[in-house]
Design brief:
By secondary structure, the protein is α/β, with parallel strands linked by helices. Helices cover 33% and strands 16% of the residues. The chain has a domain at 38-129: Nucleotidyltransferase, domain 5, CATH 3.30.420.270. A five-stranded mixed β-sheet has the order 3-2-1-4-5, with helices on one face.
């Protein structure tokens, strides 16, 4: 039987491999985007304006209208009738809130006007239109 002589001094150094793995991990962490606001998940393009108004309030009743003229309330797609009933419930439940409409510049003007009309019919008068 042949005897094999193994050199105990030869080993694989995994330190460079670990360094590369940490660099890749850091790269993916820094280049990935985190969508912290659910409203950002709806793809809309806001129109530009020269003036701007910063709105700070504890509670926002947000309505979003995308480029296909679909209406979203807090990231859930709804109809104009559902918006009217939700707005009426919101008006009765809380008085200290602000309503913000974020409408894509390609959205139908008629849909935006239906949303505004539904809000006014529900008794909401403090309505803001978000722009870029």
């Amino acid at each position: 039987m042949a005897k094999h002589d193994y050199d105990e001094g030869i080993s694989i150094n995994i330190t460079p491999l670990i360094d590369i793995l940490f660099i890749l991990l850091l790269f993916f962490i820094l280049t990935s985007t985190f969508d912290l606001e659910s409203e950002k998940a709806i793809d809309i393009t806001l129109p530009d304006t020269e003036s701007e108004q910063v709105v700070e309030t504890p509670e926002i009743f947000r309505i979003t209208i995308d480029s296909d003229s679909r209406i979203f309330l807090e990231s859930n797609e709804i109809t104009v009738e559902q918006l009217l009933s939700s707005a009426e419930r919101k008006q009765k439940a809380a008085n200290d809130f602000i309503t913000v409409i974020s409408a894509d510049e390609e959205a139908s003007h008629g849909v935006v006007m239906k949303v505004l009309d539904s809000l006014r019919l529900s008794g909401i008068t403090n309505i803001n239109i978000q722009v870029r």
